[in-house]
């Protein structure tokens, strides 16, 4: 399979998510971890960008990072799949390459 | 000791770096020295005040409950920029309730958190003697 893109920076602090969305080919996957998970909310200024991304990519988010930050699943964009650490590891084995947008 | 007006400006989210925790430690030190302490939460700093933070699964210090102790240290001027909340799809209900007891008003419990506009926050910044940024 193709590339797993990993974003760990807040979309409101850095341009990591924007660069990722600009350069990720359709069909490649996006995994949000650490402060990257602030992009999951359905009514933030990043929501439209994320809705567009969800049309072209499977999008995952690391659940322990949501829990740590008090980001509830009730306001999460539809279509994002939550994974735990085992799921994170499994994703890294399913894709040929990893691109971390630090 | 002379009392100065200290403003702690918090612009970082809680768990991705050490800034938020360090800020809270320094705030408590300032309060212990009986300084006039005010907190501002701007940009991603507003995420520090979200309810239901539980960092047990990522093995970092779960310091969010410490904010509730601020009232006991007479730290009750906590300003959150409305524009920062709105950009993130957040409102006051998403923030943990922080209160203090006003001894001049029969120990009435009052809100410590005030949601203010950028213009109001700019005025608050101008009123300070010392600005500390995290």
Would you write up a description of this structure?
- The complex is a heterodimer of chains A (102) and B (134).
- Chain A has helices at 16-23, 47-56, 63-69, 85-94, and strands spanning 3-7, 29-32, 59-62, 80-83, 97-101.
- Chain A has 102 residues and is an alpha/beta fold.
- Chain A has one domain (3-101): Hypothetical Protein Ychn, Chain: A (3-Layer(aba) Sandwich), CATH 3.40.1260.
- Chain A has a five-stranded parallel beta sheet with strand order 4-3-2-1-5.
- The mean pLDDT of chain A is 97.
- With 134 residues, chain B is of the alpha/beta class.
- Chain B has a single domain (5-133), classed as Hypothetical Protein Ychn, Chain: A (3-Layer(aba) Sandwich).
- Helix content of chain B is 22%, strand content 24%.
- Chain B has helices at 19-32, 82-87, 118-126; strands spanning 5-10, 36-41, 78-81, 99-102, 108-111, 113-116, 130-133.
- In chain B, a hairpin with a 5-residue loop joins strand 4 and strand 5 (108-111).
- Chain B is globular and about 40 Å long.
- The two termini of chain B are 25 Å apart.
- The relative contact order of chain B is 0.23.
- The mean pLDDT of chain B is 96.
- At the A-B interface, helix 3 of A face loops of B.
